[in-house]
Design brief:
Layout (H helix, E strand, L loop, with lengths): L2 H31 L1 H4 L3 E2 L2 E2 H31 L7
Antiparallel strand pairs: 1-2
Length: 85
Amino acid sequence: MYQPEQQSYWKRTRLLAWITLANLVLFGLVVVGFVNRLDQVTVLDFSLGYFLAAQGSLTALAILSFWFSFFQRRVDREFGLLDDD
């Protein structure tokens, strides 16, 4: 891969990483910031704030990991860096 193509690859990879980090902050910190308001709603006899902190955040992080992997694989394939068997 020559220099301009490398720069384009890393630009797309950095953008994908920043989007992923922004979503991590959203699920990891913003939900915790609204926990008092969310606690007024109950889901399955649990307050919504507790439910989102205990289950929702973990589920969101797992989905976000698969999302990142899917799109990074797409970028790698586009630049010819993926070895498909």
